Amino acid sequence: MRPLVVIGNVNVDLILGPAAPWPKAGTEIIVDHDELRVGGCAGNSALAWDSLGVDYAIAANIGNDQFGTWLKGAFAERASGWPVENVGTTLSVGITHPDGERTFFTTRGHLPLFSFEEVRGMLDGERLRGGLALLAGSFLTDALTAAYDDVFDWAEAHDIAVALDTGWPLDGWTDANCTATIGWLKRCRLALFNEVETTTLTGLADPADAARALKTHMPDDAIVVVKRGPNGALALGSTGDIVSVAAPAVKVIDTIGAGDVFNAGFLAALAAGVPLKDCLRTGVTIASEAISTLPRAYGNPLSAFLQETTA
Questions:
Q1: Can you tell me the distance from the alpha carbon of 178 to that of 169, in angstroms, rounded to the nearest whole number?
Q2: pTM recorded for the entire structure
Q3: DSSP code of residue 100
Q4: E strands along 97-186, which residues?
Q5: Confidence grade of residue 239 (pLDDT, cut at 50, 70, 90)
Q6: What stretches of 110-241 adopt beta strand conformation (E)?
């Protein structure tokens, strides 16, 4: 099993809903569901790794309030070195809708202060040598994102393959954000984007064509993954062949963090050395379980998935 690490945004998610239609200003509505949970791209992926029973490291920061203390407690010893910023913890309120979509209201909080110096101080590069690093939440971690070249240099020095999932930009996929992302991908070994992100970055409507176009910006041995929601996922590896898997039909309860959960399953399977299609199947399976359960569950541990793929 190759070492796994996630670097990026961990924050608090308060989920409420479903709400439809959107209420008028000055009114109050009652919703059926509420849940306070660990959130952020990095946080969601790490929780899924916990459920899968795989070892990993996580580099994140927190604010200096009760929410920060609560977040740190959720990861026990893995969070012992997390820096505490002199601001409140980032809070994201997610309003779910009957069609499975959601709307977010998010504070800036602690995330923009997360720095490369803090990351380097938390992680043992030698222990992670030869591993996989998920770099997440690029458009929220301002200080760290500005030092991405240092992150890539550190990863290359320790033969760590970087998997990038930027998340959705606060100001949308502007030309500047697309250009920055393409620049980062030139130094990444894996791209983990959803279908809209992939087609927007390339200007191509077909997700397979878009994956091929995206790969031209990346190293020859890079893997491009396109997460397609209810249509499953596809990937383009070093062979140049597209592989894909379908998603099971499930009753959707909450899609928040589905892509992050997929990332965790896919990377855990990849770290275990299983074939690319089985990596996709692992990611899709646990993401489907997560979006259709309340309280959220992730299915079987990774060992069970590996037994199925080798049976």
A1: 10
A2: 0.95
A3: S
A4: 102-106, 132-136, 161-165
A5: confident
A6: 132-136, 161-165, 190-194, 223-227, 233-236
